[in-house]
Amino acid sequence: MNPTTSSLMARRQILGVFLAFAAAYFLSALIRAITATLSPTLTQELALSAQDLGLLAGGYFLGFAATQLPLGKWLDKHGPKKVLLSFLVVAVLGCIAFALAQSFIGLWLARVLCGVGVSACLMAPLTGYRRWMAPGAQLRANSWMLMTGSLGMVSSTLPVQWLMPIMGWRAIFAGLALLVVLSMVMIYVLVPVWEKPETEPQDLQLKAIETEEGYGPVWRSAYFWRMAPIGFFLLRWFVGPSDTMGSAVDDRGGRLLATGCCNRFVCH
Prior knowledge:
Elements: H1 11-46, H2 50-66, H3 68-78, H4 80-100, H5 104-117, H6 123-132, H7 135-155, H8 158-167, H9 169-190, H10 204-211, H11 216-219, H12 222-234, H13 249-267
Helix pairs in contact: 1-2, 1-7, 1-9, 2-5, 3-4, 4-5, 4-6, 4-9, 6-7, 8-9
């Protein structure tokens, strides 16, 4: 969908919308990676094994992946503001549940909730930028969003280690729940309500795709089948510290080193 002139935002409004979305995405990346930093403490306090730590990472991605197919349709129908606010409520519950958990099962269920809750934190902004920004601004905003996510993952390392002796991991997750609520307030105040486009699509094929129920048009798309293998094989190498939880230290370092080398080879 190309943005119409009437749907484009003023520069000052764009800045506010970006900051609101970036705050939520920063926190989502932090929540994703933080359990790797906490793994020694969780192992000591709750007697978790390496397998348990790996399953905690898997629980997050299970919740995250479970929402991806319906998420696109919900974003197109209800808009990024309503969908993201609804999902972040689940993220708040997940952070609170993690802070209160007394067993591995409680931690795992909380991580599933966290994965569900933050699963719209990137696609919701990208959907809004598509409607509200000119193409050049979209490219910059998309790049800055990815940079914000990287900063969130970096913030889950040393800053969290510094806070651990002062607050403890339960208080940190309670604080994350509060920060997510603050990001929700920013989104509620700064992000506009989703409105239907004023002009109907002129292309009949595009109109048929937009009105058809289900994902049939996606599975029939030749472009999808050309791009799917690239995403399947290349995104396999997009891993972070949280994705190697449960591995031995030497194995974890080897995986991250191999990932870095592979990414450098693919990207350059």
